[in-house]
Amino acid sequence: MSETYLIALGSNMRVPGLGGPRVVIEAAFEALDERGLDVLATSPIIDSAPIGPSLRRYANAVAVVETSLSPPTLLARLHQLEHAFGRGRNQRRGARWRARVLDLDIVLWSGGVWAAPDLAIPHVEFRNRDFVLEPACKIAAPWRDPLTGLSVAHLAARLAKPKQKGA
Questions:
Q1: What is the pLDDT along the chain (167 residues), one digit of tens a residue?
Q2: Which residue from 18, 72, 86, 149 could staple onto 101, CB 3.0 to 4.6 Å apart?
Q3: Which residues of 97-131 are buried (b: 16+ CB within 10 A; e: fewer)?
Q4: How many angstroms separate the CA atoms of 121 and 126, rounded?
């Protein structure tokens, strides 16, 4: 049985012999397909400011993929792909908000909610990340957050809404 996943991609480092973050994201799109995932759609790549201590700007995008892999098995496959792009000891998964060659996260999936100690779907922070929601609106706007019932487009609009003074 196939499932559909929304995967977030991010990079803010060059890969020797490959190129800068945008090229890394383009190569990661191809690598997803080569790793047995059926890539149904890819978003435009956007540039975003870093969060946390990193000083380098990011290239971000999302992809919709179809696979028979379970969420934990897909996560393991994504970690293998990150490693193949050079995410080594200096870029361990626990080093939050640091510079990284490639970061791949499962944001949503057609199965709804997944809760385990090492994996939560929907991704716990995606509702607050315009660098995920903006590209997701281009290819997955009607997808719904199973916890809030809101569409990706609605979540993006809420995030983009300017804050009113005095509110």
A1: 899 999 999 999 888 888 999 999 999 999 999 988 999 999 999 998 877 666 678 999 999 999 999 999 999 999 999 999 986 544 444 455 566 799 999 999 999 999 999 999 999 999 999 999 999 999 999 999 999 999 999 999 998 776 555 55
A2: 86
A3: ebbbbbbbbbbbbeeeebeeeeeebbbeebbebbb
A4: 10
Q: CB 31: neighbour CB atoms within 10 A?
A: 17
Amino acid sitting at position 113: V
CA angle 59, 34, 121 (to 5 degrees): 60
Residue type (1 letter), 119 = L
Question: With contact defined as beta carbons under 8 Å apart, do 44 and 135 qualify?
Answer: yes
Reading the block at residue 84, the tokens are 């193949």
pTM of the model: 0.88
Tell me how far apart the alpha carbons of residues 107 and 129 are, in angstroms, rounded to a whole number.
Answer: 11
3-class DSSP assignment, residue 119: strand
Count CA within 13 A, CB hemisphere, residue 89. 0
Report the 10 Å Cβ neighbour count for 49.
11
